[in-house]
Amino acid sequence: MKTRMLGAVAALALLAACSNTDQNAAATGAGGTVRPGSQEDLVANVGDRVLFAFNSSTIQADQRPVLDRQAGWMGRFPDVRVQVEGHTDERGTREFNLALGQRRANAARDVLVAGGVNGARIQTISYGKDRPSALGSDEASWAQNRRAVTAVQ
Predict the structure, then answer these.
(1) Looking at the predicted structure, is the pLDDT value of residue 143 above 80?
(2) According to the model, what pLDDT value does residue 33 have?
(3) Exposure string (b/e) for 29-58, b if CB count within 10 Å is 16 or more?
(4) Nearby residues of 6 by Cβ (< 8 Å), 6 or more positions away
């Protein structure tokens, strides 16, 4: 029984790896270069996330350049639409964290709009504490999870 379960898990992992490879291949051009205007381009050349202080939705001065670069990048790719995802660390209630995540997404969106991006190109969503990027219950993990992530649609 355990062998079958392990086999099923391995098969799912293999399928997931193939799926990610196909997505990555679609975003790269000839020779493995990143396709301009893709999520991979945003991550590699601009940065896709800003981090926040504990229980704050204020864009810190050291994070603002990332959003300024994102606004410039979006100016070069006027057909690209994005979704700004607000995230929190695991502390606090689900309701509090969903509201805080939304404030973080809105704060990042506001900086992009102030940088010249048409607001109609930007959607926001809050995932609260439901999608951590770092697992762990320590300050280093929490700091990585307090973020707003810009995702190409």
Answers:
(1) yes
(2) 87
(3) eeeeebeebbbbbbbeebbbbbbbeeeebe
(4) none
